[in-house]
Design goal:
This protein is of the alpha+beta class. It has 17 helices and 16 strands. It has a six-stranded mixed sheet with strand order 4-3-5-2-1-6, with helices on both faces. Strands 7, 8, 9, 10, 11 and 14 form a six-stranded mixed sheet that branches.
Length: about 500
């Protein structure tokens, strides 16, 4: 059979690969993958602002590269994705360093040091564009500016430096210094999330710094599961076919978190966006909160009701093809034979998260959490949820007991209220205020509620025979009285003395 070699045109191929959809954060993460695979323990990022001459530099103290290995590393498709690899190898396609870097810049320079020997290699898109023919012209010497920027980290003990210059996909028209600083913050958040397992602990596997090498410049890990919080609930780890490990987490209700914890727990993009599966490979986070197209009948959407549901899913790197891991390492699709089990696991976690989310409790000012008697009950059926007033609620039970022949009419009134609850309006209003601080304690007791509180206090003493202390303790449990412990504490032993007083 006749054949003919048809190599792609270098400049056209590179320009096409630049549109793969990397963000600056995901592109830098791809470069850091190589540093971790090279056993680096310290990685430093430097962002230099100088308008169109700005640069980004990634330096690491890994094992470095000889000239031969550096040549191989600069080739697109330098490794076969079908070949077996070390379990700690975070790469796959042999494309990441080149495609990720050139998605952001026009000049990629790599400097590698082994012992005292330093080698440079450079892809420059302007050089490729002006080259004759279809040659892939790799530069063996750096530009003068590139050499100067690489020498500093090499002299400081780093073994490999990846330098991006000509940041045409970053420094676009109208891009200013303030935008550059915002970009640094965005990248830091992305890396804190993507590599949090490498950055955690007293002796982390990797220390990552941005624009410096002190504790102030160190990237702190972001744990999506809030494992250190006492109110976080976790399911047991389950090992699925192929060695896939899965574990579900239900994060604490807003009322259980301080403002700082709540802000930290939202992570990049906020609470709703961060729900779902977190897919890891080799402890490196690939997918950051997604339901992976799973669902019952149709894929689950991201909504407020399940914002507290997060599930870790660990893959060995031998399953990349089966899980359809893409070149950017940002998408994954579970294989058919695991989908039903993952749906069942996720349903359980989502149900628990829904119960926690819909429990709107309050924490007392003394930090004590107390069981309360709600006035509403929720029942579910094939036609949906139904909300009923609980006649066992102490206040409602007393009124019905004392109403004599009018008890039936009062129950009819309660039924009208139950059947006309504006559920959709309440849900919309709640969604708009769900991130607000917990309901304040002892703030603004309404006059009519204070009147009812005094009536209940008097009834417990005169009709039930309780002591004043017993009556106050009992009043602290039914809703909505439980929100006013100071007002309850000020109810006097002699109700007649307090009948006209306002606490």
């Amino acid at each position: 059979m006749k054949t003919k070699s048809c190599p792609p045109r270098a400049s056209a191929m590179i320009e096409s690969l630049r549109g793969m959809g990397y963000t600056t954060g995901s592109a830098i993460a791809d470069v850091i993958d190589n540093s971790i695979s090279a056993r680096a323990t310290v990685i430093q990022l430097d962002f230099g602002w100088n308008g169109k001459d700005s640069f980004i530099r990634i330096s690491d103290n890994g094992h470095g590269l000889t000239a031969e290995k550096l040549d191989q590393a600069m080739v697109l498709g330098s490794t076969n994705p079908l070949e077996s690899r070390s379990t700690s190898d975070l790469g796959r396609f042999g494309m990441g360093l080149k495609t990720a870097s050139l998605s952001q810049c026009r000049r990629l320079t790599v400097a590698a040091k082994v012992d005292t020997e330093v080698n440079y290699r450079c892809w420059d898109l302007d050089v490729l564009a002006t080259s004759t023919g279809d040659e892939w012209t790799l530069l063996l010497e750096p530009f003068l500016s590139s050499r100067g920027l690489c020498q500093e980290p090499l002299e400081s003990g780093f073994a490999t430096v990846v330098l991006w210059e000509g940041l045409d996909k970053v420094v676009t028209p109208g891009f200013q210094e303030r935008d550059f600083f915002d970009l640094i913050d965005e990248v830091e958040r992305h890396l804190a999330m993507t590599f949090h397992r490498f950055l955690e602990g007293q002796s982390p596997q990797v220390r990552l710094y941005i624009n410096g090498n002190t504790q102030n410049e160190r990237v702190r890990p972001w744990d999506p599961f809030m494992c250190s919080h006492d109110a976080t609930m976790a399911t047991p780890v389950e090992i699925l076919h192929g060695g896939v490990a899965v574990q579900g987490y239900v994060l604490p209700h807003r009322d259980k978190m301080s403002n700082a914890e709540f802000e930290a727990g939202s992570g990049p993009a906020g609470w709703v966006s961060r729900q779902g599966f977190y897919v890891y490979r080799g402890n490196r986070l690939l997918v950051t909160g997604s339901w992976l197209g799973l669902g019952e009948g149709r894929p689950w959407p991201k909504d407020d009701l399940h914002r507290l549901a997060r599930i870790s899913l660990d893959l060995p790197n031998t399953l990349d093809h089966e899980w359809r891991i893409d070149i950017k390492k940002s998408t994954a699709r579970p294989p058919v034979h695991l989908r039903s089990r993952l749906v069942e696991l996720a349903k359980s976690v989502r149900a628990d998260a829904r119960r926690v989310f819909t429990h709107r409790g309050e924490v007392r000012s003394d930090g004590e959490t107390r069981m309360t008697f709600p006035a509403w009950m929720v029942s579910t059926s094939t036609v949906g949820a139904r909300y009923r007033i609980d006649e066992a609620h102490p206040v409602i039970a007393r009124i019905l007991e004392e109403s004599g022949p009018y008890a039936g009419r009062i129950r009819q009134l309660l039924r009208v209220i139950e059947e006309t609850v504006p559920i959709q309006r309440i849900w919309l209003d709640s969604a708009e205020t769900v991130d607000k601080d917990p309901l304040p304690i002892d703030e603004g007791v309404p006059d009519d509620l204070m009147e009812l509180l005094r009536d209940e206090y008097r009834s417990l003493i005169t009709s039930k025979g309780l002591s004043p202390d017993q009556a106050r303790r009992q009043l602290s449990r039914p809703t909505p009285f439980h929100r006013f412990p100071k007002a309850i504490a000020m109810l006097g032993d002699n109700q007649q003395q307090n009948a006209g007083a306002t606490p």
